[in-house]
Amino acid sequence: MRMRLILLGGGSALGQALIRLGAEEDIGFLAPKPPEFGWDAATLTQLLDDTRPDVVINLSYYFDWFQNADVDAANLDLQERAVERLAELCQHHDTILLQPSSYRVFDGARAMAYGETDEPNPLEARGQALRRMEQSVKAICPRHVITRFGWLLDDSVGGVLDRFLKHAQHQEQLFLADDRRGNPTPIDDAARVLLAILKQLDCSAPLWGVYHYGGHEATTPLALGQAVLTEARLRRDLAVGDLAPQPHGATPDARYEPQNGVLACKKILHAFGIKPRAWRAGLPNLLDRYYRQF
């Protein structure tokens, strides 16, 4: 690859997956260690002045954006300011910015899958912050690719999958929504998508804008949980029996999780040739990597 790539958040689950996948194709990333208290305007300015990259992949706050159960409002405010400054720096240096986002920018009231032209209306603080970050990037940095992902599944400690499996290990019964829908997306598949985008950009394809990606076959948390448990039981004994269905409105996270988080992925297919992969096919490797930690 001709472009010089800087990966902010290389230590995150998605950053590590991207580095692994890139290494298989001899694609390297400069992944600087973040400052003790995270990237801010001053440290980002120094970094880009020193390195002058062609592309910045911004996974600097990946865990908070995609995996954390709860994110402090003050941290989200700091992250917004950092993204705004990063967009300014990328515009100044004529650098491409790859900024991830989420299905959380939608309220879930729509019955059909969300397309890129549908108007966001986030339910809660994290979705609202992600929406404002999108707006900053679009307004400031013309050469941007914003990728909204579906339900990202990774092996990070404290992440969505980890929380579910720890409950399954110790509780005999779990309730999951059977009337909420989304696109599960294993982390290796998300990394594949980002790498495919980078390859097209390396060919000087000016494909700026917002794109959606989620794993093939929209499903419910209940069906996803059953599929995860089937794989997990091949590797560990679990206390949980059968999962029980629960209405979306009765779930503890209904106030911030969209009831419909399904993303339409036609635009990314037409622009980059990226086809959605079946999320079920990614579960064995994901569970293998998760359990190797324990």
From TrEMBL:
Keywords: NADP, Oxidoreductase. InterPro entries: dTDP_dehydrorham_reduct, NAD(P)-bd_dom_sf, RmlD-like-bd. It catalyses: dTDP-beta-L-rhamnose + NADP(+) = dTDP-4-dehydro-beta-L-rhamnose + NADPH + H(+). It comes from the Bacteria. Its cofactor is Mg(2+). It is an enzyme of class 1 (oxidoreductase). GO terms for biological process: dTDP-rhamnose biosynthetic process. Belongs to the dTDP-4-dehydrorhamnose reductase family. This is dTDP-4-dehydrorhamnose reductase. It comes from Pseudomonas matsuisoli.
